[in-house]
Amino acid sequence: MMLAIAGWSLTACDESHDDWTQPTVYPQEPEVVIEGFSATPTQVAESTIDLGGMADGDSVQLFNFVQGTLPDGVKLENIRLEAKPADQPTATAAKVAASADGKVTKEELAKLVYTFYGKKATVRTFEAALYANAVKDLEAQLITLGAPFKLYLKPEKLEDPYYYAYGRATLSTADDAYKFVMTPVEDNDMAYTYTTKFTGIGGDLLVWNINYWTNDRASKDFSKVYAQGEAAKDKMSGTVNQGPEEGKATPTFFNAPQKNKFFTFTIDLEKLTYTWTLLEDQSPVEYAKISLIGINNDWNNDIDLATYGSANKHNWYLRYTFATDTQLKFRANHAWPDAGGADWGYGDADGAWNAGSEWAKICTNGAKNIMVTAGTYDIYFCDITGAAHFVPVEVE
After folding, report:
1. CB of 277 within 8 A of CB of 298?
2. Which end of the chain is more exposed for a tag (fewer CB within 10 A), N or C?
3. How far is Cα 95 from Cα 120, in angstroms, rounded to an integer?
4. What is d(CA 383, CA 361) in angstroms, rounded to the nearest whole number?
């Protein structure tokens, strides 16, 4: 392949390749032809690249670049891929830094995926092209290296599917954020909800994964926190940012569109969108107690959960260790319905839900017993929605 460079004085880079400042305009020079240049995708680039199989800092060779002899005064710089999703033809391509020997780091490829998609571990197809800038004196010319190609990337699967809410809506410290888990949406493993009374005065909540809370929170690395992006005019929906907005040091909290109202907040980490849904019933029943009943076949003594934060009276939490496999229900006010209380279970048969293997379900009044396998769990229950969660805890 030959590399042709035409018209130095025509442009430094067009608007989509703005890494270079606009050069001084000189009389146009004749086309320069450089023999011996080739840039071709490798077999790795033409197959699915599983980012979960790469260690942090690893690189993968995406193309073979053979550099011929450059004319006097010309140098090749800023070798890169530019890629956009195959299913988003109008999107602006993202730039991916590459080395002169055709290697791209795991971090650069992950950044490409997360620019357009959430973190679901599914294969993403990108339309990619290779570019460089030929530089002579103060001028730069955009150069296309080879034909466009498809790039297949699979992001690494998140270790744990547990996401937490933190902010005024929970009135908790960051240290206590693990006490406010979000509920996965059925049939969408990348969407989560949280229902409570929101303040609507600013700073209602941020969303973060348990891995962030455990590993990165102390260093104040906000790049893995999900935050407010651009809101719709009615403020009932909008986009989600991963980390702070460009130019800001901290992320922007999601904020309810009305003050002191009960909403269900839904975040879709696949589409990077959020919605607010106003509850029809703005006066849900308040219970003095929510408890577990039935542990080890003891249907007389309750194990109480607790609420945290003065404004959060409907989301309950308890860390508990089950010594053996057991069945249980959630109960209100230490009483059954015929005695002025309430109870929640799941399904039409006892054990239809094994919380040791499926961590979250929506329970209903009067349904059957829940099976829990032995172990330690963070247990959550929302008495408005019936959402119940059993998050396994590793005990040191």
Report:
1. no
2. C
3. 22
4. 13
Cβ–Cβ < 8 Å for 151, 83? yes
Encode pLDDT of 64-94 as tens digits: 887 777 778 888 888 888 999 998 889 899 9
Which of 134, 121, 356, 384 lies closest to 277, judged by CA? 384
The C-alpha angle 88, 91, 95, rounded to 5 degrees, equals 115
If DSSP states are collapsed to H, E and C, what string results for the chain? Answer: CCEEECCCCCCCCCCCCCCCCCCCCCCCCCCEEECCCEEEECCCCCCEEEHHHCCCCCEEECEEEECCCCCCCEEEEEEEEEEEECCCCCCCCEEEECCCCCEEEHHHHHHHHHHHCCCCCCCEEEEEEEEEEEEECCEEEEEEEEEEEEEEEECCCCCCCCEEEECCCCCCCHHHHHHCECEEECCEEEEEEEEEEECCCCCCEEEEEHHHHHHCHHHCCHHHCEEEEEECCCCCEEEEEECCCCCCCCCCCECCCCCCEEEEEEEECCCCEEEEEECCCCCCCCCCCEEEECHHHCCCCCEECEECCCCCCCEEEEEEEECCCEEEEEEECCECHHHCCEEEECCCCCCCCECCCCCEEECEECCCCEEECCEEEEEEEECCCCEEEEEECCCC
Torsion of the alpha carbons at 322, 327, 331 and 337, rounded to the nearest 10: -160
CA angle, corner 346, sides to 344 and 350, nearest 5?
A: 110
Strand bridging mode 48-50 / 139-154: parallel
- Taking only the tens place, the pLDDT of each residue in 167-219 is 888 876 777 888 899 999 987 878 999 999 999 988 899 998 877 777 777 78
- Contact assessment for residue 333 and residue 305, using Cβ atoms and an 8 Å cutoff: no
Q: What is the pLDDT of residues 208-248, one digit of tens each?
A: 887 777 777 778 788 889 999 998 888 999 999 988 888 88
Side chain identity, residue 194:
Y
CB atoms under 10 Å from CB of 213, counted, come to: 20
**Average of per-residue pLDDT values in the chain:** 85
